[in-house]
Design brief:
Elements lengths: L4 H6 L4 H19 L4 H16 L2 H27 L26 H19 L7 H17 L10 H10 L2 H19 L20 E6 L3 E6 L11 E4 L17 H7 L4 E6 L11 H20 L4 E6 L1 H15 L5 E7 L17 H12 L3 E2 L1 H11 L1 H14 L8 H6 L5 E2 H13 L9 E2 L2 E2 L9 E8 L5 H4 L2 H4 L4 E9 L14 E7 L8 H7 L1 E4 L3 H10 L21 E2 L9
Parallel strand pairs: 3-4, 3-5, 5-6, 6-11, 11-12
Antiparallel strand pairs: 1-2, 1-15, 2-4, 7-8, 9-10, 12-13, 13-14
Length: 586
């Protein structure tokens, strides 16, 4: 008698129903929690509570800290009676600007704000440094505690915010009326799926992304833009820029005065930029390799066909830099030597320490994200933006509520803010794959990442590399970006620039208050620890763009006549004017 139990198990008629129910349930939970896994959070709190319970020494220490903080605020209150300018019991952290207004130094608001800051400090001690708690769970609990404290911060309430009280009195309550109008306007725009107020002043092809050029190649995933030369002679090696697919390419071609593309063209380079298609449900199966093949590899073939150059300078920004590194490593494995150099801007190649984004990366979180994307086939930019807002709730949520909806003051719109609101979607397959293989398992750095069935390694990168990290990067922490030194023995010129993930890159010459540190690790020399590197690096004022231009010049050939726009003989004709069609997709 033949045992068919295994076959029957495979044919269980409830399999499809069960999977659909599980997907639907997880997707509903993900929508309600902005993609945060309640299972992970419960595990984190349980881990923290259990280990705190069995740590009498830590509890004793926390009790002592609480007593000392009560003593500090009491001592300040007593000194404050006879001394108006008494030294405060605690100062806010440098990045915390909530209590910067002098009104917070007046009684009783000074006591309120300082009590809050002492409480915040105590909760940091209470959620960290407990023996036995896993690192990820500790970060989750500390994060959750910060979020809860941000909700109840005295800046958020009329009764405890002297700045808001003053504004209401000075405006006769008009600020609250204006704030209500702003809230209604924003709510209507969100309901209609429209971008924020005043972004219409920054439209791609009209006021931003206006550097002259042509779309010379298009496939299902990218448009390749070639920019018109503005100098009589150019370097023989063209520049191919691979931007992140999470957002649109024109952060590198914003307004004319801060456009990296326009600046490069004026420096005598032939510049090409990829503009990514905004995925739809039908694109759900596009994976990382599809992005590699249809993106930088297809573009590289077009660039060399148009320019006739055997060498190209590859430039990648954010995840575009990660994809460029993957592409270059696969090319090196296969003996393709077309990249003369690589430049990676705020781009990680090692993901063991991804910064605050690591809060959203574990099996439970990724399972929830997978199910969130399951029904539509993509992750929407608003869902990604929600995660970043939670990470920086002080700056991106509560300060907006206070300033816009209570004080009635809209922050002026800028080109960078408008670009940030012009998000894109990410296909189900690609987003799921890169979160797992890169962020969760760190396959690229650990030598397990495969391209076309064969492993690639970053140690194969031997061309000169220019790497930029930014000091206040919440997306690609600079110490993580720096780890490329440990993965490749190539010549690496590393720059640490002031600013954050976006503003640090958009750092044109003449931009005020810009500075950077720079140092070069020569070929085959040992790497320094990031902090040792910072101690030894040269500090400079101004824009890092000029240093990059000098570096590019050192790795480029003699000037010559510019190449034609496109190459009709190879089927590469000018399809339309820059910025093309894909950048306009919503």
């Amino acid at each position: 008698m033949i045992d068919t139990s295994a076959d029957c198990a495979k044919c269980d008629p409830l399999d499809g129903v069960a999977r659909t129910l599980d997907h639907a349930s997880a997707a509903a939970i993900a929508q309600m929690t902005s993609g945060l896994s309640p299972v992970t959070m419960m595990q984190a709190w349980l881990d923290w509570c259990a280990h705190l319970t069995i740590s009498p020494g830590k509890r004793l220490q926390l009790a002592g800290k609480a007593g000392r903080k009560v003593q500090r605020i009491t001592d300040y209150a007593v000194r404050r009676v006879g001394q108006v300018d008494a030294a405060p019991a605690i100062e806010p952290l440098p990045q915390d600007r909530r209590f910067i207004d002098p009104a917070w130094r007046q009684f009783p608001f000074d006591l309120i704000s300082q009590s809050f800051l002492l409480t915040q400090q105590w909760w940091h001690a209470a959620t960290t440094g407990i023996s036995g708690v896993s690192r990820h769970h500790e970060e989750m609990v500390a994060f959750a505690a910060r979020q809860m404290l941000d909700v109840i911060a005295p800046t958020n309430f009329l009764a405890t915010n002297p700045v808001l009280q003053r504004k209401i009195i000075e405006s006769g309550g008009e600020c609250l009326v204006e704030g209500a109008k702003h809230w209604m306007e924003d709510a209507e725009r969100r309901a209609r799926g429209e971008p924020p107020v005043r972004t219409e002043a920054f439209r791609a092809g009209e006021t931003v992304a206006i550097t002259p050029g042509k779309v010379v190649f298009r496939n299902a995933l990218v448009e390749l833009i070639q920019y018109a030369p503005t100098t009589g002679i150019v370097r023989p090696e063209p520049i191919l820029i691979v931007p992140a697919w999470i957002m649109k390419y024109y952060i590198l071609d914003l307004s004319p005065e801060n456009s990296l593309v326009r600046w490069l063209v004026a420096e005598g380079y032939t510049v090409f930029v990829l503009s990514w298609h905004n995925p739809q449900s039908a694109d759900r199966d596009l994976d990382i390799d599809a992005y590699r093949r249809l993106g930088p590899m297809a573009a590289l073939d077009a660039v060399t066909a148009i320019t006739g150059s055997a060498k190209v300078h590859g430039v990648g920004y954010c995840l575009g830099g990660t994809l460029l590194a993957i592409t270059a490593a696969a090319m090196a494995r296969d003996g393709d030597e077309r990249f003369a150099s690589l430049s990676l801007f705020a781009a990680q190649t090692e993901f063991s320490e991804p910064g605050e984004l690591g809060l959203f990366i574990d099996e439970a979180q990724l399972n929830l994200l997978d199910n969130m994307m399951w029904s539509r086939g993509y992750l929407d930019s608003s869902q990604m933006g929600g995660a970043f807002q939670i990470l920086r709730s002080n700056d991106l949520i509560w300060s907006q509520i206070l300033g816009t909806y209570l004080m009635g003051e809209r922050e002026p719109m800028t080109d960078l803010m408008a670009w940030n609101a012009d998000g894109t979607r990410m296909p189900y397959a690609m987003h799921s794959e890169y979160l797992r293989t890169l962020f969760l398992y760190d396959d690229l750095a650990e030598g397990r990442f495969k391209v076309e069935g064969h492993t690639i390694t970053l140690s194969s990168l031997r061309q000169p590399i220019f790497v930029v990290g930014t000091e206040r990067d919440h997306v690609a922490p600079w110490r993580s970006v720096h780890k490329l030194h440990w993965l490749s023995s190539a010549e690496i010129r590393f720059v640490l620039t002031s600013g954050g993930h976006n503003a640090g890159i958009v750092s044109e010459p003449g931009h005020r208050h810009r500075s950077y540190h720079v140092a070069t690790r020569v070929l085959d020399r040992p790497a320094l620890d990031p902090d040792d590197w910072l101690d030894q690096a040269e500090a400079r004022d101004g824009s890092w763009w000029t240093d990059w231009a000098a570096w590019l010049g050192d790795h480029s050939g003699a000037l010559q006549a510019p190449p034609p726009m496109g190459n009709p003989d190879r089927g590469l004709v000018a399809l339309c004017d820059a910025p093309g069609h894909y950048v306009l997709e919503r």
